[in-house]
């Protein structure tokens, strides 16, 4: 299951989506109301998705399969769905007046396969993604380039011949986005702009806008680049947190993983105004704070990793 924060007309919600068994698994959408602390079951997905990519846009949640399957019961079509919470109500402890709806498949996903490719299907994995303005950007490991889904027209188009420069999702951070740089293997800030195209290449969809991405390295006050791992969450304009976890089981190799240490490092960032960024060409980390938490459950085994996946996704 994946999690995303959504601001609905009912207040701030944390929404969990996904499952790993299509039969008798229970609700594949779960809402946690942060004000009432109520857990609210919601509608089932049209197809069971294991840890889908979740991208909120207003009161809508877009769910995209990470690794599309062309047969079987998990991660099968439809690969892309949307849940509109604008009219949703909570009645008798359940979420009603909303449902998941199918959206067009990404053109970079396998389709119209030959019999041989159907028997031995290509393995496709969504390598990077971001929600920018009124569009969703996606790059896969199978097909070079970046594809765009227009949230207004609900149509896909190829936007650029290059892949997105980060691995995983890019999180909004003020006017920038934070992502784990594929090349530098560090958290990097990006200014991502989708604008009118001048002269697109023949492989780009006609009439499609162009993509501009400017990188801003993260450095401390001494000018040294900040090294951090790929699990992180933005804290808005003022900073972000990165996470690292390791097992804390008393006996290594036991069947049940019940204890885990989660290290959270908080970074404060300085001025993110456009003029300031243009003059220094990097983002300055003003302070750092490290905290370590112990997570344990004596009744149930923990997934690996546990808390980090919930927070960072």
UniProtKB/TrEMBL annotation:
<dbReference type="Pfam" id="PF07893">
    <property type="entry name" value="DUF1668"/>
</dbReference>
<protein>
    <submittedName>
        <fullName>Uncharacterized protein</fullName>
    </submittedName>
</protein>
<dbReference type="InterPro" id="IPR012871">
    <property type="entry name" value="DUF1668_ORYSA"/>
</dbReference>
């Amino acid at each position: 299951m994946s999690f995303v924060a959504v601001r609905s007309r009912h207040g701030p919600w944390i929404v969990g989506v996904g499952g790993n068994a299509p039969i008798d698994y229970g609700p594949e959408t779960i809402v946690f109301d942060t004000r009432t602390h109520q857990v609210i079951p919601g509608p089932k997905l049209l197809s069971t998705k294991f840890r889908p990519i979740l991208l909120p846009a207003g009161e809508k949640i877009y769910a995209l399969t990470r690794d599309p399957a062309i047969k079987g019961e998990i991660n099968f079509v439809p690969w892309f769905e949307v849940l509109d919470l604008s009219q949703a109500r909570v009645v008798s402890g359940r979420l009603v007046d909303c449902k998941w709806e199918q959206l067009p498949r990404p053109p970079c996903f396998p389709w119209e396969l030959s019999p041989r490719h159907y028997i031995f299907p290509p393995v496709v994995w969504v390598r990077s993604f971001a929600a920018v303005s009124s569009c969703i950007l996606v790059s896969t490991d199978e097909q070079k380039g970046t594809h765009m889904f227009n949230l207004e027209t609900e149509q896909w188009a190829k936007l650029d011949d290059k892949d997105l420069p980060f691995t995983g999702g890019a999180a909004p951070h003020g006017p920038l986005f934070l992502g784990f740089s594929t090349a530098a293997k560090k958290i990097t800030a990006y200014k991502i702009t989708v604008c009118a195209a001048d002269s697109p290449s023949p492989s780009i969809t006609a009439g499609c806008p162009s993509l501009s991405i400017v990188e801003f390295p993260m450095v401390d006050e001494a000018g040294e680049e900040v090294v951090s791992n790929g699990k992180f969450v933005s804290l808005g304009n003022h900073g972000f947190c990165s996470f690292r976890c390791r097992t804390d089981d008393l006996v290594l190799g036991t069947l049940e993983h019940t204890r885990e240490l989660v290290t959270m490092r908080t970074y404060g960032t300085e001025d993110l105004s456009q003029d300031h960024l243009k003059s220094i060409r990097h983002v300055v980390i003003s302070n750092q704070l490290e905290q370590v938490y112990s997570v344990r459950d004596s009744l149930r085994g923990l997934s690996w990793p546990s808390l980090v996946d919930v927070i960072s996704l």
